[in-house]
Amino acid sequence: MVNFMPGGYVGRVAFIDLSKKKYHVEPLNMNWARLYIGGKGVGARYLLEYLPPGVDPLSPDNLLIVMTCPANGTMAPASPKYPVITKSPLTGFWLDTHSGGATGVELKYAGFDGIIINGKADKPTYLYIEDGKIEFRSAEHLWGMRVSEARKAIKEELGDPQVKVMTIGPAGERLVRFANIDSEGRQHGRGGAGAVMGSKNLKAIAVRGSGTVEVALPKEFEKIIEEMREKDIFKNPEAEFGIKWGSISLGWFTNEAGALPTRNFQTGHFELWSGIDAIAVSKVRVKRAACRQCPIGCHNWIYIPSGKYAGTLTEGPEYETASLLGSNLGIGDIGALAKLNYLADELGLDTISLGGVLGWATELYERGIISKEDTGGLELRFGNDEAYVYLVEAIAYRKSPFADLLAEGTKRACEKLGRDSCRYAVHVKGLELPAYDPRAAPAMGLSYAVADRGGDHLRSWPIGPEVLGRYWLGAKPIPIERFSPENKAIIVVQQEHQYAAKFALGVCDFCCWDNERLSLLTWAVTGFEEFKDVRNFELAGERIVNLIRVFNVREGMTSDHDVLPPRIHEDPHVSGPTKGRVLPREWFEKMKKEYYQIRGWDERGRPTKETLKRVNVDEGVFKHVGW
Ligand code: SF4
Hints:
The protein is an alpha+beta fold. The chain folds into three domains: 12-208, 4-Layer Sandwich (Aldehyde Ferredoxin Oxidoreductase,  A, domain 1), CATH 3.60.9.10; 262-428, Orthogonal Bundle (Aldehyde Ferredoxin Oxidoreductase Protein, subunit A, domain 2); 442-624, Aldehyde Ferredoxin Oxidoreductase Protein, subunit A, domain 3 (Orthogonal Bundle), CATH 1.10.599.10. The chain has 25 helices and 19 strands. Helix 1 packs across helix 2 and helix 21 (515-526) packs across helix 22 (534-554). The longest helix is centred in the C-terminal third of the chain and has 21 residues, at 534-554. The structure holds iron/sulfur cluster (SF4). Iron/sulfur cluster (SF4) binds at residues 78, 80, 100, 290-291, 294, 296-299, 508, 510-511.
């Protein structure tokens, strides 16, 4: 049993060298914890410090960091989220990818705030972490297993069903650039962290701990989490949708708004959505589930009782999956969607990037840019679920030259293929776009373009205020016109601060907390007095955004990377309520310029030294600033 320090932290970080099969433990840098809170913030500071510039993401020198957050393992509701942090093999830039699986909490119980993994094992290996000790175990017998098989085999081998397991599937082993990491049935989905694990010959991380996590101010903490449950969740109409339907209910709103990616983002409205929407899911739902300590419980388990895919049992689909593997591929059948979702999860593939690359390839086929000669005889048309079922497995195992190409992700695949195919590629910095089309919500375009890990919806979500038409700036509402660039940059900036700080704290994004509550929660958990003032919580978020931008600029990011796919500016939606709409390039440039100005970044997108001083990054950051 390990002794724990109060205040949400364990106080220990393990540095693990897979090449040498050795590890050592260092105290958590509490100066960094105070400035960057935890999770993605503290993980960013470790990555900046310990990853040399210019490292190939799939080389042994890349770092794989599993970092926990102060709220993980406390009684705070909806607070199990923890990140894997690395340099992405899909984008070549920063990656944090979060999961609600129980392994993060268990890692704290086992005595670590984080583990930092370097090197490459000579043979397939898994780590077993138990109450402060780390063992290197052979995974040769696990190599090739799907994720649920590997998880089960490890628990049986260790003789303990309570062990929590993070594992990759066959896709991670074969270095598919959008391979994910499974954590007890939830996924660290985006950016290819599973390929980084595979490149290190690391099949899994199994964790068991007998500790607990103390909060610094128990009485204040009790009061705040009671308010979170009562006011933010149970009496909040927004949360009601999540509780009743799960994230898939978002599709009603996006389909009506013309923002639902359909047939490789050719339009924003899917005429077959009712076949896979929240009602369709509820008809085949067999149970609801939740991450640890979450009263929302947004997960749906579904079972397909009849038809071509009878017998499929899977968790999901979440909204993003239903869109990218559903509407974006022209699939309006819940059985086919369930099968694709199941295969992606079991083989270890990010469903968003998978749907993106498949949508791109299908459009190329329909336009005659590729033919059966390229696809290996496949009739790759939108709605052809059998072709997609075949391709998901083929990509995970890199079974054919065509599948091997797609396994590289849309950006690399189009660059290799040529034939003007990049014209139809929908990604930012190599990360395929999620399920909110910027032609229906212009600020989402800015949000994707400047997001730290590439095209992503979990850095800010301005489509909410854009469609509702109002945004609260402090105590004052500012008017927003949906189809206009005015007042959009400030929304993205402010939301980015909230998202960065709440992910550092470990609180799920799928609810409705305000900054005051999150700040007070940070104060009560950590005991850091400054978080009694919400401005310091928002400043911590701003500090994290700037810290990660320093990392990305060091790795070669410039304003030239903060751009959108040509389709968003040049191809009008072909149907639905946004028919004829594009996001005009001049609107986008205006928003981006304002964004840099508000941030205090120069015209090349670099934080100035004055900005870094203003947001109070630690002195050690400046040695990484070469501009
Ligand atoms: S809202 Fe859903 S994803 Fe978030 S913590 Fe709760 S159950 Fe998990």
